[in-house]
Amino acid sequence: MAIARRMSFPALEDVLETADLSKHNVAEALRAWIEYMNTRGGDDKRIGVRDIADAAGLPSSRVSDVLTGRRVPTRDELDMICLAIGMGKDARVKLQGLRLHEESQRSRSSRMEEPYTLVRTKNGDTVVQSPRLMTAEARRYQHSVQPVPAFGQPDPIRVSSVQELVLALKAVHVWGGTPSLRELERRSRTILRRSTISDMLRGESLPDYERYVAFLRACGVDGPSLDTWVFVWRRLSALENPKVAPWLPGGTAS
Q1: What CATH number does residue 16 fall under?
Q2: DSSP characters over 143-208
Q3: Which residues contact 154 (CB under 8 A, 6 or more apart)?
Q4: How many structural domains comprise the chain?
Q5: Which residues have C-beta within 8 Å of that of residue 5, sequence separation ≥ 6?
Q6: Is residue 135 part of a domain?
Q7: Closest Cα to residue 150, out of 62, 234, 222, 229?
Q8: What is the rounded CA–CA span in Å between residue 241 and residue 90?
Q9: Rounded CA gap, 37 and 90, in Å?
Q10: Which residues of the chain fall short of a pLDDT of 50?
Q11: Rounded CA gap, 12 and 7, in Å?
Q12: Cβ(83)–Cβ(254) under 8 Å?
């Protein structure tokens, strides 16, 4: 599914180097970068929505909504999309600033447009305005969505090396209450050995996938947060293989 050519592609430098963030939005910046990469790669190597979604580990519909401006991505979603399309660190930092600006503007606009309901006091003498009550369905959805990462949990999405991954794993160990090596071994049902955990936290090489996941689970990481850690491990694994890295969008990002 290719990015449609009829979309407007502002000049990349105009979007990422302008001091006035109000002139552009995240969707424009991403489309400008994609067009820039597609121009370099030629028609045979054009980046499509499905390519980006697969590399970022996100649904195609969500990526499409972000690229068309129908929704502002979360911080982590934007990071994963930027990595998937090969965007360098400096550009990603600028784009996160653009995202915060756009999110703030949309939030302010939403509050101004929000319908209000008239509510009377008990004695019936005073009429006041209060925001429209959230529907029961919306409340259930809000409670069902787990923030990523979980509250207070280390965020691995910016990890770009084995050494940084080790520091993040050590932070997870602290976040999880600093359980002993013996306790981690017990929680993992012997998938982990104490010597294996010690080796993992020394960071001499990328940890074995199964033991890596077992360590995270033993420290209390699960659900959508665990998915993010898995994505980071797969990215580092690909970067370690020169023959594989070029096939991973973002594999050569600075």
Answers
A1: 1.10.260.40
A2: HHPPPSSPTT----TT--SHHHHHHHHHHHHHHTT---HHHHHHHTTTSS-HHHHHHHHHTSSPPP
A3: 168, 171, 172, 175
A4: 2
A5: none
A6: no
A7: 222
A8: 24
A9: 16
A10: 1-10, 18-21, 114-122, 124-134, 139, 141-143, 253-254
A11: 14
A12: no
Element (H, E) at 127: strand 127-131
Q: What is the pLDDT of residue 37?
A: 81
Asked, for residue 125, whether it belongs to a domain, the answer is no
Kindly state the tokens that stand for 107: 């939030």
pLDDT value, residue 48: 86
Beta-carbon neighbour count of residue 27 at 10 Å? 20
* 150 Cβ contact list (under 8 Å, min separation 6): 221, 223, 225
Structure tokens at 141: 């959805």
Owning domain of residue 196: 162-247
Query: SS3 for 125?
Result: coil
Assigned domain for 45 exists: yes
* Contact present, 78 and 95 (Cβ < 8 Å): yes
**Looking at 88, 107, 126, which one is the last position of a domain?**
107
Residue 116 lies in a domain: no
pLDDT in tens, 92-132: 888 888 888 788 777 666 555 544 444 444 454 444 444 44
42-81 residues labelled b (16+ CB within 10 A) or e (exposed): eeeebbbbebbbebbebeeebbbebbeeeebbeebbbbbb
